[in-house]
Amino acid sequence: MKASNFGVLNPPELSLQNFKHIYDLVIGAVSSIGTALLLGYFSKKLESRKVSTIVIVIIVSVFIIVSNYFVNNLVNGSSAFRRWIDPNNYIEGYWFETSPPDTNNIIKHETFVKIEYNDGAYVISGETFDSSGRSYANFKSVSSAYYNGILYFQYTSFNQTHGIGQGFDQVQFDSPPNSYKAFIFSSSSKRYYGTDGVRIDKGQVEAYKDFNTIDDKRKFISEFLTRKAR
Fold first, then answer.
1. Residue 77, CB half-sphere, CA atoms under 13 Å: how many?
2. DSSP structure class, residue 89
3. What is the distance between the alpha carbons of residues 57 and 103, in angstroms, rounded to a whole number?
4. Which residue, 24, 92, 107, 159, could crosslink 137 as a Cys pair with Cβ 3.0–4.6 Å?
5. Alpha-carbon Rg of the chain, whole angstroms?
6. How far apart are CA 140 and CA 125, in angstroms?
7. Nearest to 90 by CA among 174, 196, 184, 24
8. Burial environment of residue 55 by CB neighbours within 10 A (0 to 12, 13 to 18, 19 or more)
């Protein structure tokens, strides 16, 4: 929360967590007010207080269940809504990593990273290509946590040369989140290394058919490296 030039505190930025907190407060307030109004209404219509209480409990319960179902579907099912609510923490989508150059200043490999939102958590997966466009490795997160622009996750991987691997990744996003710096520890090779990532914008994703096939990804890499070499 920051002070404005006039000495008045600005409201906190809306985020998914704030939205859920505000929603819980609103539902609680509406339920309380609704219960009081319904109690007054049904006490006049129904002679039995027990029956009126049961009716009110059923109505309020159905309202809460339907509201929770609608909001949960909206939050979990709409990427556009999550982006609108919390653009500064919207990290979903496709990202592209370029490994640091070796001693000959040749790019070692390129990696597609996909970040998906799943019921309050993130699932991270990726596929790695060499500079000739050959896909030889992939990985997927087994657990993740995100806070304040930093994403932590544990992953398992498969590499055609080295076999199955495991490790940890810490990704720190820039603000707005259109690029990041990553620090990776491979438990299998006992090695630390860093890399950079950039967001692949929506237009590019659509142009390459949502990267549905390896050929779409390979074409993107080929054209990306051609542009980079100019």
1. 6
2. G
3. 71
4. 159
5. 25
6. 4
7. 174
8. middle
CB-based burial, 208-217: b 16+ in 10 Å, e otherwise: beebeeeeeb
Q: Label residue 199 left, alpha or beta by phi (over 0 means left) and psi (-120 to 50 means alpha).
A: beta
Q: Please say whether the beta carbons of 99 and 196 come within 8 A.
A: no
What gap in Å lies between CA 137 and CA 95, rounded to an integer?
Answer: 16
- pTM for this one? 0.72
Higher pLDDT, 23 or 218: 218
User: 75-105 burial by CB neighbour count: b if 16+ within 10 A, else e?
Assistant: beeeeeebeebbeebbbbbbbbbbbeeeeee
Whether 111 contacts 97, CB under 8 Å: yes
Q: Could you read off the pLDDT of 54-103 as tens digits, one per residue?
A: 777 777 777 777 777 776 777 777 788 888 888 888 999 999 987 755 44
